[in-house]
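User: Hey, quick favor. My workstation is busy. Could you predict this chain's structure for me?
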Amino acid sequence: MFTPRARYRFYGSPSNYLSAFSHAIKPGKCDYRAGIESEVASMLGVNHAICVPQARFGLYLILARLVTSERPNVVMSPYTIHDVVNMVLCAGGQPVFADIEPETCNIDAGQVRDLVDDHTAAVMVTHLHGLACDIGQIRKICDERGVPLIEDGAQAFGARSGGQFVGSFGDASVFSFGRAKNINAFYGGMVVTRNAALAESIRREVDILPNESTPKLMKRIANCLLGDTLTARPIYSWLTFKIFRYGAIKGINAVNKVVQTENNPIRKEELPATYRRQLTQMQARLIQRQLPKLDRDTQTRLHMARIYHEGLSGQEGVILAPWREDGSHIYLQFPIQVEDRWDYVRYMMRHGRDLAIQHMRSAAELEIFKDFFKECPNARYTADRLVLLPTYPGYGEREVRENVRVTLQYLQQHRIPG
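Assistant: No problem, here it is.
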């Protein structure tokens, strides 16, 4: 659950919508896909980049080429969307869950070392919330054991570790250009790799797929436009926020479910036919237009994150991610962990604040994956307590400072007497 403005104000420019609608109706002849593939590959310092319709489909394409009957295991974080686990299953693999670090929410390199064995097809890491995991150490482990490394950089496009771009450490990696990412194209993704044979195999499969259907794309664009309209001032202040605040405070499911995800996880062992599509030229054009603004927008997010961190660090009753200003955290959102997040959310909403409850659960303990169950206490603890504060460009420093003020007020009122 979240107030919609906390996440949905990402599409921004009216020209993006005009371009999207016009190109969806009357496609141009320019090959924008090839253009952004070349640009992203050059940016990351890798040899190959391949557009895909969703990052999760990209993961499937990679895993399907690495998983074998002798090596079916994929070591991975449990703190991810359930459909990432589904991609392992659809590729014929078996998830082996390694718990996360409590503060970073990223996979624990020590557990990865303990879990890699002769049956491991790959190690798959996630750079969550824009924060690079301990990728250097995990790369070293994979090299020592002769195991491929896959990076899920869906939330970390543009992040670096030791000056090297996330996504360039792995044998293959994926990025997302979905609706809540720092570059968005009404869904979309990309596979990157230095492995020519892997790239050629994936491209052969992708190139024969049909484009995403125009009606489906138009529906996505219209939904996003509606979301941006409803979260624009003064509509948001006058109407939208009041509706969602009332739903959250009163526990009205009919309202809350509008902004909830991962509510009904479904296990998949065969890839849905609807996943087998290509990123359209229209979507590639939108990505191309946003790439030049990536670093500038990251600096804006970093500025907002600094305000959150300076205002909330050292406070009892809250866990913050480690502060980074070396490029290893792009702060897609600003994650904090509080003991009773529902109480905190209701308090913040009563005071007119924007925030999002992180929708992910510990996949290691989901009923649909019970045959792969593993105790992951850090993932379980985090999944019950994590809240996301907005950092997207356009949100505004004043709003960030007000979020800090009300959060401090909440923590003071709920402080346990010593």
